[in-house]
Amino acid sequence: MKDHMARLAAIVKIDQEIQALKEELEETPSKVREIQNQLQGITGAFQEKKTEKDKVEAEIKKYKSEVEDETTLVKSREERLNATKTQKEYQAVLKEIATGKTMIKEREASIARLSAALEELTKVVEPLQGQSDELLPQLETAQAEIQGTVDQLADKLKNLESQFNEQLSSLPEDIIHKYRRIQDKKQPAAARLLDGTCQECYISIPPQLFLEIRKTQEINSCPNCHRLLYIDFND
Ligand SMILES: [Zn+2]
After folding, report:
1. At residue 233, does pLDDT exceed 80?
2. How much distance in Å is there from the Cα of 163 to the middle of ligand 1?
3. Would the pTM count as exceeding 0.85?
4. Owning domain of residue 113
5. Ligand 1 centroid, distance to 24 Cα (angstroms)
6. Whether residue 156 sits in one domain with residue 127
7. What is the pLDDT of residues 168-190, one digit of tens each?
8. Ligand 1 centre and the CA of 42: distance in Å?
9. Which residue, 15, 78, 135, 207, is the most exposed by fewest CB within 10 angstroms?
10. Ligand 1: distance of its center to the CA of 165 in Å?
């Protein structure tokens, strides 16, 4: 029965390695998610500012072309001014010229205001583009690396699980059932018994039970946490 206890000790060790690996496997992709979220935030901000910038640029373009058209019109009116025959006509053309000049002045003020806004937007958009350009290859590298790590961990896990099943199946049927049942509720499913104390819940088991376990070397359950108890005879 000493064999069973030694095997149980080995099983617990493998089981703990399996649990640690599973946790590592769960945590690994979170690094990729972190970069993805960061990139998403930057891309979103970039798109928003870029749309705004494009709109301002289009408006400036429109105003500039209006100024150009109006300047041409004012020029031709100024030429027409000399050819007017009546005072009334002269006044009318003069009024047209004044209106045109006011319009040009207004548009130019708008262009100046929009150009300042454009400058501010460019200051924001360019670094965002730079950040996004930097993060994209980082994400690709992280994804490739993580895939490699995940594959490695999965292989290791498969290997450990088969070792675990092999070892567990060599124990008596009732012990296997008990182990599985406890395993579903808590980890580890077995505890080392040291100087009469369960090393998981730290309760001292009744002296009589301890003596019996030492004598028979049968696998018993801890009266408190119900884990299977084993003695490490290498101590
Ligand atoms: Zn216990």
Report:
1. no
2. 25
3. no
4. 22-169
5. 27
6. yes
7. 999 999 999 999 999 989 989 99
8. 52
9. 207
10. 24
Same domain, 125 and 137: yes
HEC string of the chain equals: CHHHHHHHHHHHHHHHHHHHHHHHHHHCHHHHHHHHHHHHHHHHHHHHHHHHHHHHHHHHHHHHHHHHHHHHHHHHHHHHHHHCCCHHHHHHHHHHHHHHHHHHHHHHHHHHHHHHHHHHHHHHHHHHHHHHHHHHHHHHHHHHHHHHHHHHHHHHHHHHHHHHHHHHHCCCHHHHHHHHHHHHHCCCCEEEEECCEECCCCCECCHHHHHHHHHHCCCEECCCCCCEEECCCCC
Measured in Å, residue 169 CA sits from the centre of ligand 1 at: 23
Count of domains for the chain: 2
Tell me, in angstroms, the distance from the centre of ligand 1 to residue 227's CA. Answer: 6
- Going from the Cα of 128 to the center of ligand 1, the distance in angstroms, rounded, reads 57
In the reported structure, the alpha carbon of residue 201 is separated from the centroid of ligand 1 by a whole-number distance in angstroms of 4
16-25, 32-41, 197-206, 214-223: the lowest-pLDDT one: 32-41
Mean of per-residue pLDDT scores for the chain? 92
